[in-house]
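note to self: dont lose this again. the chain is below, predicted strucutre after it. 154 aa total, dont forget to put it in the shared folder this time
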Amino acid sequence: MIIDGIKHYDAIFGTPTHEANKVFEFLVVAVFQAGLSWKATASKLPVFQRVFADFDYRQIAAFDEPELEKIEGAADMIRNDRKIRAILQNAQAAVNLEPEFTDLADYFWSFQTSDYSDDLGTFVAKDMKKRGFKFVGPKTIGILLIGIGVRPRL
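---
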């Protein structure tokens, strides 16, 4: 259980991970970070962990309308219904990556040897959008790729 989201995020950022749910955790942060500081978003990691099924995207993909409304009404949640619903959409898109990829982590790591190293965030974000992901801009996805270790931390 995450207690201090900022310390947790700072400790894991840049550490290579191939764990699918950990990668989805970074995706949740990326979605909610749009328009906010990383610290504001990371401070909500304990809330995200609680409301988003410990970042189990297969479980999140099956959330129904009452579950989404409960998340939207949570007092300590970032109040942005579009971003909350984007998490559901992204969980469903992540499930749909299979069987082409083993899981979400395998999808991101498949870009490690890409020739788009200078503009990899843009390339991956475009691919994600084609696959149905939402709130995945080039800068946030570029940061995510560094966070999960696909690209080196500078």
